[in-house]
Specification:
The chain is an alpha+beta fold and about 70 residues long. It has 4 helices and 3 strands; from the N terminus they run βααββαα. Strands 1-3-2 form a 3-stranded antiparallel β-sheet. Helix 1 crosses helix 2. It comes from Corynebacterium gerontici.
Length: about 70
């Protein structure tokens, strides 16, 4: 079902999957310390969904089950 999702995910979605506070996610994104690339677009942070899921070792089935 992840094929129906946009290719980029908001940073807060990644933070939620990592059980990480919003402020920590933004700090790590600014410092370039997240395990996947982060793109800033118009003041918002986005991550490539496929790379995020791969680096967190999540399968599409695990995400769909939530």
């Amino acid at each position: 079902m992840t094929e129906n999702l946009p290719p980029m995910a908001p940073l807060l979605e990644a933070a939620s999957l990592m059980n990480m506070a919003r402020s920590t996610a933004y700090r790590l994104a600014r410092e370039g310390k997240l395990p996947f690339p982060v793109k800033r677009v118009g003041g918002r942070y986005y991550v490539p969904r496929a790379q995020m899921l791969q680096s967190l070792e999540l399968t599409s089935g695990a995400v769909d089950a939530e």
